[in-house]
Amino acid sequence: MRPILLALASLAMASCATLRPTAEPQRAAVAVVFDRETITPVIVEGLADRATGRAVEANDPVRIASISKLVMALATLRLVDEGKVDLGTDVSTYLGWSLRNPAYPDVPVTLGQLLRHRSGLRDDAGYVIPLGESLQAKLSDPEAWYAGAPPGDAPFEYANLGSPVVATVLEAASGERYDRLVERAVFGPLGIKACLNWIGCSQDQADRAVVLYRSTGEVARDDAADRPLNCTLPVAEDVACSLDDYVPGTNASIFSPQGGVRIGMIDLAKIGQAILGEDNRLLSPQGFRQLKRRFPPVEGSAPNFCFYGFGVHTLYPGLVGCNDVLFQLGARWYGHAGEAYGLRSGLWMEEDERSGIAYFVTAVPDRNAPDEGGFAPEEIELVGRAMRMVE
């Protein structure tokens, strides 16, 4: 993608057939390239909803899975800028109750550890805490923790459970419900239409949802029965699906901060542009330095997570011991990947700060092994095709 502006100008004259190839008509895929000034869809193909035959559009909202953690990092660093939280403070200070690994009751847990997946939390006890259940109770389960080392010294372990903790801390510190905080701190300043678990999205946005399918063809998420006007929250049995009595700072798991953002790829690219350009509507210069901070390889981690910072994953393809090749060897990219319900997605920016890509592809086969990061052949093909179009 060097340079991409001339390539983007020629792409603007591309035919609809170029943007909508007939291969794989059932599998929806969108890829959008961007630099600091320009956003251009280069691949838009397949069906957003097989039941109705609706074709996918470039900015149709889709559940982006773990890219939501990068959105959470932006919200966290915004509150750091505002002086409401600190990455090194014991999160118990904000929660109002003591959060501890039961095996290390005297060792505090911090936001920085949680964002870097170094707190000792793990997903063995599950990470979805429905409305009406207790986050505090979930975190008292020894199965939720790594017992071999204290927080901070615990090895890197990619744990979705850390995200509900972070989001709940942000609520407690700010007094804002997590979905409203993200709207204020991230989506609103950039003019983006997005939401978490469909809360705050309009009915028109929900009606344009990309339905997620398994590779077998079965619906996984976000068909008509899984969208408004139906309940879109995880709710405990015999509990009303209503946020009227929800108290911020008690259980932000209900917003699925680990993966529940619904957003179109053009709007996701706007977040990428803001990160590239260090847009002060999002963060201060110090905030962006923290966001883009490079940490050394994490010893003992899955080889696809060799470099992981405060909610940001950096790809160093070609580095011995790291298996994180999505782009050509020699190019370093940072951002985050997503994987859930047959979807693969990504928001990646070049380390030289000139350009980036936002994409998703649906109906990707599930892994045969536990989730340890890495990229599926379907997304590698999609990204490669998109990059060749702008060379």
Keywords:
disordered N terminus, 391 residues, Beta-lactamase, 12 helices, seven-stranded antiparallel β-sheet, alpha+beta
What is the CATH third-level topology name of the largest domain? Beta-lactamase
- The CATH class of the largest domain is identified as Alpha Beta
Runs with pLDDT <50, length 5+? Answer: 1-24
Number of domains: 2
Oligomer: single chain
Strands side by side in the biggest sheet: 2-1-14-13-12-11-10
Please bin the fraction of helical residues. 25-40%
Determine Rg (CA atoms, Å): 20 Å
CATH H-level superfamily title of the largest domain: DD-peptidase/beta-lactamase superfamily
Q: Helix- and strand-based class?
A: alpha+beta
Q: Given the structure, what is the number of helices? A: 12
Task: Describe the protein.
- There is one protein chain.
- The protein has 391 residues and is of the alpha+beta class.
- The chain folds into 2 domains: 5-71 and 180-389, DD-peptidase/beta-lactamase superfamily (Beta-lactamase); 72-179, no CATH class.
- The chain has helices at residues 5-11, 16-19, 68-81, 92-95, 111-115, 135-139, 162-174, 178-187, 203-207, 265-276, 285-291, 377-389, and strands at residues 29-35, 39-45, 47-49, 54-55, 62-63, 195-196, 212-213, 219-221, 261-263, 307-308, 313-315, 333-340, 343-350, 355-361.
- A 7-stranded antiparallel beta sheet has the order 2-1-14-13-12-11-10, with helices on both faces.
- β7 and β8 (219-221) form a beta hairpin.
- α3 (68-81) packs parallel to α7, α3 packs across α8 and α3 runs antiparallel to α11.
- The longest helix is centred in the N-terminal third of the chain and has 14 residues, at 68-81.
- Mean pLDDT is 90; it is low at 1-24.
